[in-house]
């Protein structure tokens, strides 16, 4: 094996009970999987084609786990009995093709960690709202006194928690990329919020492939399990046709009355399960906006399926504070509200953000455009947006999409410039909304960096 400076050889490999495992990607999920695999007696090798963040490197060194960065040593990787890959690595990556040619199983960190826990699993997926719903569900369960972990696309890795904690249940945010590499894993409660076009480059630009990926959350479920879904979402309903579901179904809707599940009646969320009945005014919810009624319904059904007390559920749904970078209030200056929704990296997320606004908006849009179709935003932009501030290297498609809908579209090239420009375009009572509808990699490290720079810029105004 190559021993250049990019490889850290901490200890000679120990042939564990399970043989050799290769882990591709040394981010949160990969490093957590490495720790669990080592704990289970595997000979672990971690390989990242990019640079590994210093704190992850320190963890791997501290545990004596061999790793490499900025390369893939094929002789090491192809000697593994199994490969655990980061959700961010596409199947078309050359190393993945070689692994599959050798018929070495490729799985996700979630699949691997699921083998070593008998905790109850609540899995939540959807194109939009999954982080909010996962966080809200965890908050409700924790408030009710359950011994519950939070993992998946959020927080500490599931594998690391399985290795170090003893939770009775987990709430997991599951992306389609994670679900793609899950085979035997089973959720006791599966939540599918919605399906809208996203990441289609990973699915041969075929919507049906992406839909199939989302429905993997229900695979392996039995009659004792639960499937919660949105009865108002056309792609979900279309996707259910021709598929069979063993689990008990609990739909939710704001358009029609649901016998067993959740619906909206006279501005009240109503949840009915065979054992339980719950009602709460939408005006009391901490999360406002139509999309958040759906998110609250999904979390509420989980709570009632688990037979949590109504007063606990009501209190939790009234006091929950949303996660950072998702419709996060940054403060008010001169009567102008500033909201950080940097996590809105697709058009749908921005649509949801605009839909929840109750004042005139100066909208900060832009970044790396994933082939966005801005058509769905046009009506809301006409109704609510007085000016658009572009934040990206190439803003032409935003200009083309909205030049007939707003009077002012301005280009900026930093978070500070965008915040300042938006502040000058807004007047008392308006909202400055950073909801970019695009990825952040042209000007920022990631959406968190974009959101943090925006928040810092607002504080400087």
UniProtKB/TrEMBL annotation:
One of its GO terms (cellular component) is cytoplasm. This is UDP-N-acetylmuramoylalanine--D-glutamate ligase. It catalyses: UDP-N-acetyl-alpha-D-muramoyl-L-alanine + D-glutamate + ATP = UDP-N-acetyl-alpha-D-muramoyl-L-alanyl-D-glutamate + ADP + phosphate + H(+). One of its GO terms (biological process) is peptidoglycan biosynthetic process. It holds the Pfam family MurD-like_N. Residues 124-302 form the Mur ligase central domain. Pathway: Cell wall biogenesis; peptidoglycan biosynthesis. Keywords: ATP-binding, Cell cycle, Cell division, Cell shape, Cell wall biogenesis/degradation, Cytoplasm, Ligase, Nucleotide-binding, Peptidoglycan synthesis. ATP binds at residues 126-132. Cell wall formation. Catalyzes the addition of glutamate to the nucleotide precursor UDP-N-acetylmuramoyl-L-alanine (UMA). Its EC number is 6.3.2.9. NCBIfam families: murD. One of its GO terms (molecular function) is UDP-N-acetylmuramoylalanine-D-glutamate ligase activity.
């Amino acid at each position: 094996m190559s021993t250049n400076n990019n490889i850290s050889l901490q200890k000679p490999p120990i042939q564990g009970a399970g043989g050799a495992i290769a882990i591709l990607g040394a981010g949160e999920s990969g490093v957590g999987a490495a720790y669990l695999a080592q704990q289970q007696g595997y000979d672990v090798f971690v390989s990242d084609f990019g640079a590994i963040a210093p704190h992850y490197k320190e963890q791997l060194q501290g545990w004596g786990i061999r790793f490499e960065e900025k390369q893939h040593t094929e002789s090491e990787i192809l000697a593994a009995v199994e490969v655990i890959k980061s959700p961010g690595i596409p199947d078309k990556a050359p190393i993945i093709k070689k692994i599959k040619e050798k018929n070495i199983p490729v799985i996700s960190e979630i699949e691997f960690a699921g083998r070593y826990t008998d905790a109850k699993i609540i899995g939540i997926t959807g194109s939009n709202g999954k982080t909010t719903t996962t966080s809200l569900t965890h908050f409700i369960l924790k408030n009710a006194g359950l011994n519950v972990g939070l993992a998946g696309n959020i927080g500490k890795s599931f594998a690391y928690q399985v290795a170090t904690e003893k939770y009775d249940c987990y709430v997991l945010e599951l992306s389609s990329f994670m679900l793609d590499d899950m085979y035997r894993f089973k959720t006791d409660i599966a939540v599918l919020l919605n399906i809208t076009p996203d990441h289609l480059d990973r699915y041969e630009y075929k919507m049906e492939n992406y839909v199939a990926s989302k429905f993997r959350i229900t695979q392996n479920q039995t009659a004792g399990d639960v499937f919660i879904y949105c009865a108002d979402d056309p792609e979900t309903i279309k996707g259910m046709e021709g598929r069979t579901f063993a689990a008990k179904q609990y739909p939710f809707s704001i358009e029609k009355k649901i016998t067993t599940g959740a619906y909206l009646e006279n501005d009240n969320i109503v949840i009915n399960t065979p054992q339980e009945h719950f009602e709460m005014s939408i005006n009391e919810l901490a999360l406002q906006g139509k999309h958040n009624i759906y998110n609250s319904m999904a979390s509420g059904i989980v709570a009632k399926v688990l037979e949590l007390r109504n007063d606990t559920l009501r209190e939790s749904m009234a006091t929950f504070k949303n996660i950072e970078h998702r419709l996060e209030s940054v403060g008010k200056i001169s009567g102008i509200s500033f909201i950080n929704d940097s996590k809105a990296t697709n058009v749908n997320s921005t649509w949801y953000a605009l839909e929840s606004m109750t004042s005139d908006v100066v909208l900060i849009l832009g970044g790396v455009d994933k082939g966005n179709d801005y058509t769905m935003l046009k009506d809301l932009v006409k109704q609510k947006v007085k000016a658009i501030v572009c934040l990206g290297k190439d803003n032409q498609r935003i200009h083309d999409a909205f030049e007939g809908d707003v009077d002012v579209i301005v280009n900026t090239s930093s978070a500070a410039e965008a915040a300042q420009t938006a502040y000058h375009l807004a007047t008392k009572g308006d909202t400055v909304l950073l909801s970019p509808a695009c990825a952040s990699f042209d000007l920022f490290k990631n959406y968190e960096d974009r959101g943090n720079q925006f928040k810092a810029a607002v504080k400087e105004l």
